Amino acid sequence: MKSELQGEIVYEKTLNKIYDDICNKISDLVLLQREVRDSTKRELDALNEYAASMADHPEFEDFTSSRHKRVFNCAKTGEPRFYGYKKQGIEDRRLAIFHHKNKQYQWLLVEAYEIFEDYLQSIYACAGYIDSSLWAMSDFGSISIDEIDSKDYEFYLGKANNKKGVPRSIICQFRKKFPDIQSFEESNKLNVDLNLAISIIEYLRHIIVHKRGWVDDKQKFIKLVLEKCGLYNNGKYKENHEKLISHFFGDSEYQNMVILLEYNLYPDLPIKITANRFEQLVSFIMAYSTLIAESLSDHLRKHITNE
User: What is the phi-psi region of residue 52: left when phi exceeds 0, alpha when psi lies from -120 to 50, beta otherwise?
Assistant: First the structure.
C-alpha cells in the first residue's frame, strides 16, 4: 500500500500539474485562434478598401485580379512543369480568405482534442497510481495483484498511454467510478449534454484529419454521433441534440462542411454581437476536463486521508 506521503506528493504535484498543463495549452490555442481572427480581419479590411478604391474605375478591373501559376520540377528531367493556373478576382480572394481561416480553426480544434487525449491519459495514470481500485484489472496487463503497489507513476503512465480505445475507454471508466460525472454530463448549467459535446469534437477531429473537413452526408454523420452516445434510440432523438451537431456545419453548399467560424448571435439587432464556434468547442473540453479533475480530486483527498 502506498504511503500517505507518496499520495500527497502525487496529489499536490502531479494532479495539479496535469490540470494546469491542459489549461495553459488550451489557452495558448485560443490565443492563436484570436490572432488568426484578427489577422484575417486586417486582410479583409485591406481587400475591401482596395475594392472600394477601384469601384469608380472599371477600366482597371483587370488590375484587381491576382494570377497564380503552379509549377513543380519533374523527377526524371528536373525541368519545371506547370500544373495549374488561376486568376482570382476580389470575390475569389474573399472566398479564399474564408476557407483559409476556417481551415486554420479546424486544425486548431484537432490540436485541442489531442491535448485533451493526452490530459485524459495523464490524469488516468495519476488516478491509478494513488488508488489502483480506480482502474479496471485489464489495465494492469499480466502483472500479479501483489505487484501493483510496488509500481511507480511511470508504470501507470505507460499503461495509460497504451490503453485500448482511448479516450473513450478512459472516460467510461471515470464515469463508472464517479457517478457525478455522468450526472453532470446530462444536467448542467451549460444546458449541453457534455458527453455528446465531447463526442462531437472527437468525430469532427476525425473528419478534419481524414476527410479534409467534409462529410459525405451530414444526416448520416449526425446519426453516427448520436448512436455512439446512446442518444439515437431507434431513430428517436432530441431536437436540441441534432441542432448542437448541425451548429458546427455550414448551410447551402457548405452543409456538409465543418464550419468553426464566428457567427452573429442576434441577427435581428442593429448591432453585431458574435460568438465563436471554435471557442465554444474548446470550452466544452475545459468544462469536461474540470469535471473529471474535481471528481478525482475529491476522491483522492478522501482516499489519502483514510490511509
Answer: alpha
